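Students often ask why inverse folding is considered easier than folding. One informal answer: many sequences map to the same fold, so there is more than one right answer. In these notes we will look at a single instance of the problem. The structure comes first.
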């Protein structure tokens, strides 16, 4: 399955269905045959009544009716069963496609997305496809074919009654169309409000501890209240319109029974219609528009599914902007004419730097001066407005994720570990690392004894282990993880903020000894404690100034 954000909803839906082509076609063919078989019991009823009326045996027709009902049941079961199988497989493929698209998405774009919104698109929006494929596909086929077949039967009985039965339908469809105009836009607005409410709920739950601690109405609570009020308002409007459209359509559609029956009785009186014909006309008129009425009930769900497709597509990749694989050895790291802005505020302009392998570079400056922004453009977390970092002669922002990860590792003060063992978390790199090398680094960082005392040592579950480690110890583990990647470039963005002076010196010395040819870019507020640096830069007023080394 290949979805791109440049597709429209129809093209995307076709791609989804084509990924389960066999199951979809079996379901469609079964549903079509089911509708044709469903008309057979009506014909058998008509002919059996005529047989009784004429004094002959109706048993042949009744047996045929019973067989048709059984076949219809079997075909409907197959149609629904294969539709469900197709739906579940399509949803799974779409989710896998989205996960892969997120995995290949540029870091700066990924960080611009809200976590709650991503969760809703992968879970709720993908699941919204299930009714459209599993249920409504069969309903739509049946809803379109049965009225046509029933009307054809009515034409067989008396063409005048068939025309009278169809007269209210254009009025009903016109009324519903007028009342449902703009429904897709309102559905999209509703979906956005629900997404915002979901995000606000997550933010509220994350900050509820702080709110309780200070006994204040935090911004997250106010945002949650606003989104809930917006949700209630649009649901009220949405319900009023849906109920009005539904009642209007049903009222107009049911007029056909009121119009047909008196005319049919009149035709019986003048001898142009038999009593059997009258009974069948009444039965057919009562059920003629029922399938179309059923379709109006699922109309909102169909719209919701199509809106969900529109929300899924922006997460997919685009056909342009292909990333480059890069494997050349690092000769020089440079920053060329780089400019970075936040809105109307210029953070950097015309930044030029040259750094060679083996250099340790210290970057300091006041809070908010742009130190982290400078290195975030190198790690890929931010995009520059012009220029950028280059490895040798190629811009880093053109590299694919795998190429960038071979050159750059980064550690900040926010430590993140994942479900698994301690060893699995330390070896996120694709390098083949032996346990001896891990223990060597643990010893160099002063953590060997602590890990040795764990019941399962390196195989200890990180969830349990993290409770036994302090913040500074977890930060050292994160630095070890980055060191084990042995990338030519290492970014330490306040990575030693939770360490005391002694352990900070020990960690930096261990890094220098372990990777002497590595470029180490270090941001630290305690820059006086960073020893043995080869270059020192101060960031201030949107520019970078080199500080002479004494």
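Output (designed amino acids):
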């Amino acid at each position: 399955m290949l979805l791109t954000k440049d597709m429209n909803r129809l093209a995307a839906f076709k791609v989804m269905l084509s990924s389960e082509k066999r199951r979809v076609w079996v379901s469609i063919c079964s549903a079509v045959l089911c509708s044709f078989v469903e008309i057979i019991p009506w014909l058998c009823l008509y002919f059996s009544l005529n047989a009784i009326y004429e004094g002959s045996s109706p048993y042949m027709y009744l047996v045929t009716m019973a067989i048709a009902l059984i076949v219809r049941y079997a075909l409907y079961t197959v149609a629904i069963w294969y539709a469900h199988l197709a739906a579940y497989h399509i949803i799974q493929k779409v989710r896998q496609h989205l996960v892969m698209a997120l995995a290949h998405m540029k870091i700066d774009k990924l960080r611009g997305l809200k976590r709650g919104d991503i969760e809703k698109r992968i879970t709720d929006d993908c699941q919204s496809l299930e009714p459209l494929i599993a249920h409504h596909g069969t309903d739509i086929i049946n809803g379109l074919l049965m009225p046509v077949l029933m009307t054809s039967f009515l034409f067989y009985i008396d063409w005048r009654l068939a025309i009278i039965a169809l007269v209210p339908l254009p009025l009903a469809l016109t009324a519903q169309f007028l009342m449902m105009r703009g429904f897709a836009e309102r559905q999209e607005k509703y979906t956005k409000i629900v997404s915002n409410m979901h995000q606000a709920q997550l933010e509220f739950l994350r900050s509820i501890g702080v709110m309780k601690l200070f006994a204040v109405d935090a911004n997250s609570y106010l945002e949650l209240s606003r989104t809930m009020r917006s949700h209630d308002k649009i649901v009220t409007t949405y319900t009023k319109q849906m109920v009005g459209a539904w009642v209007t359509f049903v009222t107009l559609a049911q007029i056909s029974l009121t119009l047909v029956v008196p005319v049919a009785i009149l035709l019986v009186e003048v001898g142009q219609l038999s009593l059997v014909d009258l009974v069948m006309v009444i039965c057919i008129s009562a059920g003629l528009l029922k399938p179309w009425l059923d379709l109006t009930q699922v109309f909102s769900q169909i719209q919701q599914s199509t809106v969900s497709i529109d929300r899924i597509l922006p997460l997919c990749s685009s056909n342009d902007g292909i990333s480059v694989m890069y494997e050349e050895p690092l000769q020089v790291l440079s920053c060329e004419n780089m400019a970075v802005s936040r809105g109307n505020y210029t953070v950097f302009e015309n930044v030029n730097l040259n750094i060679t392998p083996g250099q340790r570079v210290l970057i300091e400056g006041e809070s908010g001066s742009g130190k982290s922004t400078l290195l975030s453009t190198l790690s890929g977390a931010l995009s520059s407005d012009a220029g950028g970092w280059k490895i040798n002669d190629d811009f880093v922002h053109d590299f694919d994720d795998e190429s960038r990860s071979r050159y750059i590792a980064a550690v900040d003060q926010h430590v993140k570990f994942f479900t698994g063992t301690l060893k699995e978390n330390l070896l996120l790199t694709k390098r083949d690392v032996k346990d001896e090398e891990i223990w060597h680094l643990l010893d160099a960082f002063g953590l060997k004894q602590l890990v040795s005392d764990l019941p399962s040592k390196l195989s200890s579950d990180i969830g349990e282990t993290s409770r036994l480690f302090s913040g500074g110890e977890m930060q050292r583990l994160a630095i070890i993880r980055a060191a084990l990647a042995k990338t030519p470039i290492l970014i330490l963005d306040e990575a030693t903020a939770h360490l005391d002076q002694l352990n900070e010196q020990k960690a930096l010395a261990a890094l220098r000894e372990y990777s002497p040819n590595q470029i180490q870019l270090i941001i630290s507020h305690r820059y006086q404690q960073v020893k043995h640096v080869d270059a020192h830069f101060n960031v201030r007023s949107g520019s970078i100034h080199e500080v002479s080394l004494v």
